[in-house]
Amino acid sequence: MEKGLLDFTIVPGGIAIMLIYHFWLLRQILRHPTTTIIGINALNRQLWVHAMMEDSKNGILAVQTLRNNIMASTLLASTAIMLSCAIAALMSSGGGGQCASIFNTSSSSRNLTCTMKFFSILICFLLAFLLNVQSIRYFSHASILINVPNMAQNGRNTGVSAEFVGRIMNRGAYFWSLGLRAFYFSFPLFLWIFGAIHMFLCCVFMVALLYFLDVSFDFAAEESNGKGGECCRSEMAGFV
């Protein structure tokens, strides 16, 4: 089968597999959060924020933990923008022609296909950069809000609630997870340079791997009796 035809048949199939899996994962997070790692982590982050804000002695521990999260997001953001610059430089220096020469194809259509491959990878890394920057933003806000004292003035509480701080921290974690997913999406796009079949097989392998990384049945008992799900559903609703 011609390579150009494979790019228009197998590649959309691989992307569809990845998208369908993530739509299913989002549905599980919204409806059955305790069966997913993301949902379980969101619930426990809320509990952690409550524990940190109940005792002022935990302020240093809370800031150090949030600083570690900021450093993780900064590392991914720096890596994403560095790779974006490298790919943009490769495209501007005629990377599409070099890609076509690797497979002994010099037609303009092949050059256009290779340029599309590089551009899709570039978009993927730029998206990862933006998502991780938003993660840094929310974690920075949480590092301040988590140490705000609840002081009553004129009968009004001027502090922030633990639920609000938990939502801010969960949003930072959600953006970090989305940024990491953008890195995951880049692997099939890289293999697309070497052929559509490689890209499709990578998509199937990635979905199988992510399933074992995303799904958990350790808290199935809590989900069965209705506990724990409402909190995470409200968090995701606030995020969306």
Label this structure with key terms.
2% strand; 240 residues; 9 helices; mainly alpha; 80% helix; 2 strands; two-stranded antiparallel sheet
Protein described:
The chain has 240 residues and is mainly α. It is built from 9 helices and 2 strands. Helix content is 80%, strand content 2%. The chain has a two-stranded antiparallel sheet with strand order 1-2. Helix 2 packs antiparallel against helix 6 (162-192). The chain starts with a helix and ends with a helix.
* Shape category: flat
Strand order of the largest sheet: 1-2
Query: Mean of residue pLDDT?
Result: 82
Main β sheet profile: 2 strands, antiparallel
**N-C termini distance:** 43 Å
- Treating each run of at least 4 consecutive H or I residues as one helix, how many helices? 9
**Strand segment tally:** 2
Q: Give the helices and strands as they follow along the chain.
A: HHHHHEEHHHH
Task: Compute the CA-based radius of gyration.
Answer: 22 Å
